[in-house]
């Protein structure tokens, strides 16, 4: 039995690897998607920052006050141009019509209020739909404010602690690995669960519905091999493509992180520290039964479908069924316990988070692995029954 | 040797199919106690109009379908008992047989050779012999998807014959093929007969049957209307030619129903 299964497996693997669609979904997309996203986002971020730094900012300025300190302060700033106007109504109108992005209005009595230690006020006009550069104006206003405070403290011969009586030191007791695991660790399984499924999708359609459509299944059924041998050989290829796709996506993610310059060094050190043999092995132990389960989910549907198109329309919505539990594990407060450890897909997201954080509870992990193996076995049994029915094969 | 004994086949019908066929029954009986025998060194032809039950009968013989009742023995092996062993003794070819487009003829023939339990050396020897015979060496390493219809049919023939089957089942083997490609099939059927193999082929073309067969079975609406030698068929003819006689038998059965 094993000899025939291996023969079928080898042939199906060769056939699958020569299918352009499979290569795109199984190899190219998972391996390239993250490096490309990282490169594109880093470039975009850098170019936005560069442009922002070089950009000359124009703001409208209306002052009805005699005191000119604030006006001089703004005029001293680099890459900042003040358009002096007379009327605040006109200023508001220009901001509203997008002719200028920001407007500052200094009412009469501003300087006097500062002098008398009263609360003075400034109005800033902006459009809530365009916030680029607002931080810069906020920072300049904050700098002007601290300049006034420093002057006042100096006048009274007081130091900064007069207005800042104590300092709070925050001590984070979580390690970088724990933080990464608990906060961002759910993202990792979310990725490989999706790629595991999408990577197996096309081979499943091709190896069952495709064979039906091309009328090669009939030929294979006349060979002296049992249907279970055919099923095992094909399912092994489908599960393998899912597994390879998930691993390539992970590889792509790590490569993407390495070539991306936007992450702080300490995060990169933690990320690279996660990639241990133990981590990969623990992941594989969960991924292999998951891939078999996914194959078991896809095979009956692709056996049932008459055409490639029909199979695609049946199988594609299933992706959401896979994404949903994977995303459930990302919700804060959903903990890895005896119950969630046996809920398919959710358990993988939660277990991976714990493995990354280094806080995995071994009995729960074993429950997850055993439940996944059980699920994989059940799906294989169901597929065998389904594939044995001639009404399904020759529909 | 093929023995078909009281073979019946029913297909279950779902609601949609019942509505389409305008029937109330939950199943459709497409074969009614069909019996015939195909002997080694002779060609048995199953002749019938479209939808008569030819393909269903041959698919049951090839173990693609299971009979609802009745029995088929291939080389003395009961298909219900040991379908895999029976398949090892059979070759199955249809005019619309699909091939693995992304494989080369060499890869596909090796695959089926291995599935039929042949050793590598044995596969190579037989493959080369068939390639010589069918002049296939030139395209043996090209992807099947890029081959012409004639070349593809030669690949199908080699795939069917690689394990040197004792019984060869041809389901409308020339259907949809051009004259030259169809000629290859007809020559193959003759070769099989000369080698003492048991050959059964289905057709709805009387001239093809006349050219090849020794024994004839006429099937219509899932029932065997005639089952004897070709000589006997000719001697019992009530019309001027074979095609008209075939039509007469089919029409007569319609009237009786």
Summarize, please.
The complex is a heterodimer of chains A (395) and B (257). With 395 residues, chain A is mainly alpha-helical.
Q: What does this entry look like structurally?
A:
The complex is a heterodimer of chains A (395) and B (257). Chain A starts with a helix and ends with a helix. With 395 residues, chain A is mostly helical. Chain A folds into two domains: 2-39 and 176-393, no CATH class; 59-162, abc type-2 transporter like fold (3-Layer(aba) Sandwich), CATH 3.40.1710. In chain A, helix 3 links the parallel strand 1 and strand 2 (80-85). The longest helix of chain A is centred in the first third of the chain and has 35 residues, at 20-54. In chain A, helix 2 (20-54) runs parallel beside helix 10 (227-259) and helix 8 runs antiparallel to helix 10. Chain A has 17 helices and four strands. Chain B is α/β, with parallel strands linked by helices. Helix content of chain B is 40%, strand content 25%. Chain B contains ten helices and ten strands. Chain B has helices at residues 15-21, 54-61, 83-87, 105-115, 120-134, 149-161, 179-194, 206-212, 230-235, 242-256, and strands at 2-12, 27-38, 43-47, 69-74, 77-78, 90-94, 167-171, 198-203, 215-220, 223-229. In chain B, a hairpin with a 2-residue loop joins strand 9 and strand 10 (223-229). Chain B is globular and about 55 Å long. Classes of the chains: A mainly alpha (395), B alpha/beta (257). Chain A binds chain B through residues 4, 7-8, 11, 14-15, 18-19, 211, 214-219, 221-226, 390-391, 394, and chain B through 11-12, 62-66, 84-85, 87-88, 90, 92, 94, 96-103, 107, 111-112, 114-117, 159.
């Amino acid at each position: 039995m094993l000899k025939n299964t291996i023969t079928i497996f080898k042939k199906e693997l060769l056939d699958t690897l020569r299918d352009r669609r499979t290569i795109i979904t199984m190899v190219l997309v998972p391996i390239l998607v993250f490096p490309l996203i990282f490169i594109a986002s880093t470039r975009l971020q850098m170019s936005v920052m560069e442009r922002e730094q070089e950009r000359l900012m124009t703001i409208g300025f209306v002052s009805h006050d005699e005191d000119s300190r604030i006006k001089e302060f703004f005029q001293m700033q680099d890459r900042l141009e003040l358009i002096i106007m007379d009327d605040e109504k006109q200023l508001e109108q220009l901001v509203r019509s997008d002719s200028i992005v920001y407007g500052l209005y200094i009412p009469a009595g501003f300087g006097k209020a500062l002098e008398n230690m009263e609360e003075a006020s400034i109005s800033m006009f902006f459009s809530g739909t365009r916030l680029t550069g607002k931080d810069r104006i906020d920072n300049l206003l904050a700098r002007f404010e601290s300049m006034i405070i420093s002057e006042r403290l100096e006048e009274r011969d007081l130091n900064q602690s007069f207005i800042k009586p104590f300092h709070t030191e925050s001590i984070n007791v979580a390690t970088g690995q724990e933080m990464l695991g608990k906060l961002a660790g759910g993202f990792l399984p979310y990725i490989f669960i999706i790629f595991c499924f999408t990577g197996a999708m096309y081979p499943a359609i091709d190896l069952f519905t495709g064979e039906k459509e091309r009328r090669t299944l009939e030929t294979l059924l006349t060979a002296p091999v049992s249907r279970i041998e055919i099923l095992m050989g094909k399912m092994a290829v489908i599960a393998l493509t899912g597994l390879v796709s998930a691993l390539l996506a992970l590889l792509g993610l790590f490569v993407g992180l390495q070539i991306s310059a936007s992450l702080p060094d300490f995060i990169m050190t933690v990320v690279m520290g996660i990639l241990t043999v133990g981590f990969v092995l623990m992941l594989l132990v969960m991924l292999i039964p998951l891939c078999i389960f996914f194959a078991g989910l896809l095979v009956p549907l692709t056996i049932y479908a008459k055409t490639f198109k029909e199979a695609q329309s049946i199988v594609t919505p299933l992706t959401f069924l896979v994404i949903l539990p994977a995303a459930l594990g990302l919700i804060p407060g959903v903990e890895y316990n005896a119950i969630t450890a046996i809920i398919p897909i959710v358990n993988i997201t939660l277990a991976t988070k714990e493995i990354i954080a280094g806080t995995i509870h071994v009995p729960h992990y074993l429950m997850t692995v055993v439940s996944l193996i059980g699920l994989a076995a059940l799906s294989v049994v169901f597929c065998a029954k389904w594939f044995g029915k001639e009404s399904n094969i020759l529909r | 040797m093929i023995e078909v004994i009281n073979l019946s086949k029913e297909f279950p019908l779902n609601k949609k199919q019942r509505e389409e066929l305008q029937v109330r029954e939950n199943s459709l009986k497409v074969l009614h106690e069909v019996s015939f025998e195909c002997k080694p060194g002779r060609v048995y032809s199953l002749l019938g109009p479209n939808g008569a039950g030819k393909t269903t009968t041959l698919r049951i013989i090839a173990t693609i379908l299971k009979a609802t009742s009745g029995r088929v023995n291939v080389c003395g092996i009961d298909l219900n008992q040991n379908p895999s062993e029976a398949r090892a003794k059979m070759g199955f070819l249809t005019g619309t047989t699909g091939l693995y487009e992304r494989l080369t003829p060499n890869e596909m023939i090796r695959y089926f050779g291995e599935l039929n339990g042949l050793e590598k050396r044995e596969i190579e020897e037989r493959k080369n012999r068939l390639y010589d015979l069918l002049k296939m060496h030139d395209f043996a390493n090209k992807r099947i998807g890029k081959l012409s219809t004639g070349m593809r049919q030669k690949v199908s023939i080699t795939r069917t014959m690689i394990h040197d089957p004792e019984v060869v089942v041809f389901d409308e083997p020339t259907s949809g093929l051009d004259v030259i490609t169809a000629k290859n099939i007809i020559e193959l059927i003759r070769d099989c007969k000369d080698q003492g193999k048991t050959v059964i082929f289905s057709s709805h073309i009387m001239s093809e049957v006349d050219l090849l067969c020794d024994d004839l079975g006429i099937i219509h609406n899932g029932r065997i209307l005639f089952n004897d030698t070709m000589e006997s068929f000719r001697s019992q003819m009530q019309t001027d030619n074979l095609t008209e006689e075939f039509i007469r038998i089919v029409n007569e059965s319609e009237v009786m129903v």
